[in-house]
Amino acid sequence: MNRTRLIFFVIILVAFFIVGAGLLMRGLQRVAGPTGTGEVGTPLPRDAVVVSIQSSNTKQDWMNQVVESFNAAGYTVEGRPIVVTVEHVGSGSSMQAILDGEVQPVVWSPGSDLWVTRINQAWEDRTGRRLITEDCPATLRLPLGIAMWRPMAEALGWPDKPIGWNDIAALANAPEGWAAYGHPEWGQFKFGHGHPEHSNSGMLSIVAEVYAAAGTTEGLTAEMVKSPEVVESMRAVERRVFHYGKKDTDILLRMTQRGPEYLHAVTSYEANVIKWNRDHAAELRFPLVTIYPSNGTFWVENPYCILDNADWVSEEQKEAAAIFRDYLLSPEQQARAVDWGLRPADPNVSLHAPIDLEHGAIPSITMNEVPHLAYPSDTIVGHILDVWHQVKKKATVVLLLDTSGSMRGEKIKGAVEGATRFLEQMYPDDEVYVITFATEVIELPTSGQVGVVGESLRTSLQGLYAEGSTALYQAILQALRRIEELRAEDEAAGEARIYGIVLLSDGKNEIVGGPSWNDVLSRLPSGMEASGVKIYTVAYGEDADEDVLRTLANRTNGKFFTGDVKNIADVYFLISSEF
Fold this sequence. Notes:
Elements lengths: L2 H30 L16 E8 L3 H14 L2 E2 L2 E10 L1 H9 L7 E3 L3 H15 L14 E8 H6 L9 H9 L17 E2 L7 H15 L7 H4 L2 H11 L2 E3 L4 H11 L6 E5 H10 L8 E4 L7 E2 L4 E2 L8 H14 L2 H9 L38 H14 L3 E8 L7 H16 L5 E7 L3 E3 L4 E2 H13 L9 H21 L5 E8 L11 H7 L10 E7 L5 H10 L3 E5 L4 H9 L3
Helix pairs in contact: 3-4, 6-9, 7-9, 15-16, 15-20, 17-18
């Protein structure tokens, strides 16, 4: 072997070693996982017992702190080191991911016991057995409330006067809006809450609405839920909802960015109000406060559930998960929760700042003043969701799909699958219009009301193929014109809906001599009105014009996503929670 070939051979060996080592480290990091802070995880010790946790996001800061201190303490089981990892998730979406086999945690800690009942019922329906057989102890006691700008809450009587869901329904139903409370300058009430099929606070919000309208704190029946009084009370509140979403904190962020002109209130936890006042004080126009619904609310437990009946959880993992549970519930760790604005499950732990008036909380409020609502059965929850679907604002959405030549192969196939999944999440009274763009911009003739055109629209989507250039700017302008026409028709008929454009593209505008970027910017909604058209954008692959797509989303109060062939269906599923 000559010198040149020998050097070449050595270089190849070194390259393989570097790449292999890098892949090995990445694999180890994926197994060990992050603590939820976004930092890269530490490689696992040899023979480690990993306790992976899916945890509701409200307690993220506290959980990260406890996990870090636990891992540093060197706990073991059967002589093997225990490593705890945590991912912070939405309760509804994590439940679905577990049921679908997309994640297999050792521990699940949703926002409330309601989700434990739901996942056990769903698992039993599928397998004939429950997923969780042991008790799930509470880790916290967080009151669900209504986060509202302080001047508006004070106009309703906060903090001295009890305010209930019936008062919120009356405000929502008042033709004169805030003028009934001496503030005509605030206009009509504008409200938001998480999507009840994705968000714990969103689900509990609509259940609490039902309890208040039914005039009880327990014993809900199907007849109560479907009664005219309950339906009309829910309709009054839901007609003033302008923003859903996967998480209530996403809506709080929009309120922070846009101010009281955008939204007046959102269902959220006391802990989130405290966090927002502490972390975003410089950005908030006014402080936020927590209204504790006087007729009752949910003091959510954030239960700690070991998935003891899951095939993927070993006996060592169950034992290790129990060790971490005891650590989490110890007085020292419970006291740490208060520092983050979280009420501990341990009643012997005293409350202190930041759970105070300065941060929008009333620490003296307990379950004696605001009773804990009983969790209804999964069947009753199903009836409540049926009524919510009946009374919620319907959506009108334009799906804008890139079908240019760069979308050939797996890309167009994935995009069609994602769009189809989005369509499946919409409700019969929603309207979906599909516009494709390549060299030309074309609206599919099968667009319209989902309950009428759903099947034919799915068939049309399956027939799409990729060719041509990317008329991105022209497509955006046509989508805006179309949705403005539809909105004008609805307003003329006295109908209020939620309007959105969902844009997927894998490239940049390629049409010379067509509309410019400035033409697009001049036609965008201002983003200052909660009822305005929101644009949700998906950068599909590495060549997408992320700057353009991000700007479209940010300026219209939509959301920017990145996607690829593997996850595009999940991205569309997430976007559906906005409607």
